[in-house]
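User: quick one, fold this
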Amino acid sequence: YGAVRMAFVHHTENPNGYAAAEVPAMLRAIYMFHRYVNGWDDIGYNFVVDLYGRIFEARAGGIDEPVVGAHAGGYNLVSTGVAVLGSFMGTPISQPARRALERLLAWKLSLHGLPAEGKVGVRVNPAGAVYSRFPANAHVSLPRIAGHRDGDSTDCPGDVLYRELPGIRSAVARLAPRPARLTLTQTAPAPPPPQ
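Assistant:
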């Protein structure tokens, strides 16, 4: 397990316009590619959202746990990865997919006590630095909800979806305002009253 400090948004590069009944086969194909071609233990993303607004656990281990994915080289230990099923270089995601993405990110970040907006400082893990835009062990500042291209050398999550991220961050912040932080302090007991 890692420690979720941020979220990366991805696209899967599958063709758009698929039917709802095709999604299970598409997810199995992603699994086969990630598992047997890439050599990963499971699907790299923690979650996948389809164009109908359905949310799928993509990487096994518990949706409420900080399960380490294989979705963002150099940052997997500190992030959760959410992929929208499709290709969004020139096409926007559907409204149901956007609403589901926003709700999922609000829930997941709140669960780990994280705000939706702002930046977070992270160190590029040498194990995945070959994919990163930054050198191994570099300390970088990334958006709390980042596009994959913010950290790695890729055009993911596509130009159109990437341009939608500021609005998505704002919507997530409205759904899950900045988490409250509970602090406990111990005080010395009051002295006994004078006799």
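User: anything notable?
Assistant: The mean pLDDT is 92.
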